[in-house]
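Subject: Putative ABC transporter ATP-binding protein YheS structure
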Amino acid sequence: MAVLLQIRNAYKSFGDQVLLEDAEATITDDRKVGFIGRNGAGKSTLLKILLGEEGLDSGDVIRHPNMSVGYLRQHDPFAEGESALDFLMRDSEQPEWRCGQVAGEFELKGEKLNGPVKALSGGWQTRVKLAALLLHDPKLLLLDEPTNFLDLRTQILLENFLRSYRGACLIVSHDRAFLAATCEQTLSLDRGKLTMYPGKIDKFLEYQKEQREHDLRVNAATLAKQKQLEKFVNKNRAKASTASQARSKQKQLDRLSLIDIESAERTAYIQAPVVDPRNGAAFRCEEMVIGYPGVDVASDITLEIEHGQRVGIVGDNGQGKTTLLRTLVGSLEPKGGSLRWSQHCRIGTYAQHVYTSIPENETVIEYLEGQAMAGTTDQQVLAVAGALLFRDSHVKKKVKVLSGGERARLCLAGLLLSDFNILVLDEPGNHLDVETVEALALALEAFKGTVIFTSHDRHFMKRVANAVIEVRAGSAKNYLGDYDAYVYSINQEITDGRRETDTKGGGSGGDSKQKSGKGQKTFNRSRKAQKEIRNIEKLVAKLDQEKKDLNEQLLTCTDASKALVLHDEFSKVSEKLEEAETKWLELTENTDDA
């Protein structure tokens, strides 16, 4: 176990805001760490410091001399006209079989691998960038909100890869399910202090809650003790016979202090709109067609949603989840069929096309007061604003100076102050931290109205949804099962797909058209050479897996004699793998020249 990174006595501030103060943390080469903290706490700033893009005001970041860092790029790194395979080979300088192998982990095959990469959707392009990042085999991966806008299938593929990844990871995310599935440790940034907890996020949040409750109990006992000592001192300090006792008690009193539990006071509390529960169908549609002029996204949609249901809309990216939501709320007209809401449905919408149209000349507090139902007190408005991170002077900000994330939170705060009995929410947790997402989930669970929503956050989806609609293959249907059953089915599809690929020989192989890093040159191989290359590719994949397995056993082995045996096996497999890779390169070079 080697230390990759050490943060010591780190201090960093922007103006009056202190982001890091005497911060300490150590990251080793055998751990995957989930990094959490409130919005604005400084998580992204710390990542920039670790990448060398920003410096500390004081303190040190000590890096292992052989450490290499991989960071998920947000910009478009693709050249015009190149395929995903072209890009992977050019970017990583890895052989074709290796690029195909890693691409296959993210289901990048066929046209997705060999067609123009710029023609892929944003989600598929993210898969390509993740594959490229992992092909560099960095010692430390830094991932900043990697699950944002990734559908469930891509999240699971990323999880599967990270679990088998040999290096260390530091992952910033508000997605509890993703962190729980990938990270063994939790790093928290709170009021400038870094805390490394040797366990998963759920255990850490449980520990954090218990610690706060303990601190509150200690403070209550301390306050009682202070009152008792103050009473004794005030009563006895003037008497000659008890003055010395009073002085002694005063010293005890001076030593007593309260534990700082500011973070507990800042924990978000969100109350959902108070509405009367209703029975029966809230919404019905029959043979509905949704889409845009000239494009049908999904058709033959027949659905019914009951009052009081909390319906999660699920499906892969690009299938039409957001199009369905926009049609339900009237932003898009159905292209066919029928759609009907029952009487007295008051629909509140949270979506990008809504929160970008908030009146720009209003202040935060003016907008919220305008959205609040009659009878809402100023204190209730300020409480909801504070829960969504608008506190103190921030409530006087004009909407026009707010960021996209701030406008999104403002729109959500307005909904929570209203009297809507139907809430339609498109990714409500994207701009919220872990604690606020949890508070929102609790509020929606207690809501007596109807909720229809999409989310890529599995913990949130599982907590809130009690019914599921799946958008898939050009239609939308009620899913006959809960969200856990849906997640299981996607996992099963991924497993079955890999099993089928393994049966067929897998990889990008010699059966697909392959390209060099620069152009369209097609490999012209003889049958004998093709067969030999395919056999070596299978051997390389087998040896590479054996090497991974042996490395994992070495990392967990505590028996010295067994470790020596494992190390010898690891060395032998590594030599065989190197020989096979060299042979593969020789064969492909010879067939290229033929």
